[in-house]
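Incident log, structure service

09:12 report received: a user says their structure output differs between two submissions of the same chain.
09:20 pulled the input from the user's history:
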Amino acid sequence: MHTVQPHHDNWLDRLFIWLFSRKMAKAIDGSTSIGGYGGFVDLSKQIMQGRDAAEQQAAVAQVLQSLVPAPILWVIRTVFSPTRLVCVLNAWFAAQMFEWLVGPCTVGEADVVGLDGELRSQPSAVQIKKCRYLEDSQCVGMCVNMCKLPTQSFFTEKFGIPLTMTPNFEDFSCQMVFGEMPPEPIKDEALHEPCLQACSSGNPKASACHKLAIS
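09:34 re-ran on a clean worker, output below:
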């Protein structure tokens, strides 16, 4: 079986970790004594404390929007429609820029329904080999509320570029498909996932993680 090597942060990774951690701390008026990526995960756990699923997602949305000025979001959403080229470029960009967050990524083909309603294959899928965020947190709720749902919403609603993220809670891999509209909550399998065996506060025998909510 292929083993995914652990991600080693370079100076650019550490810069992104510092920037995101700073934004997260500001959003909740908090702090952490843990350095590096561990501090980023610790702040994520702090955001979850005392907040329901919707509030957690709103806090992450605030962080994401603070990283991209509103005028730039408006220009991207207005000028760039989710064409094949735009989706492919977004996949390439995500694979290059998000390794600090999720670990090694590759870009591959995905079947996507285009603007014309036709199903086509295009290289707009980002395959995350083993998500370090999920591996570090060992938490289904953190994966869904702090990463999957707010990231999907940010790209789909703010950028106007549909995105669907499908985490695999058995091997911690994940697929991001640009150009694919995210499923309705009731049909999203990730929102019905039970807690992981390693989760200290969960009940793996429950039908779904107690930190999830279908709106």
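09:41 both user submissions now match this output. Likely a transient worker issue. Closing.
09:42 reviewer note: The mean pLDDT is 89. DSSP finds eight helices and four strands in the chain.
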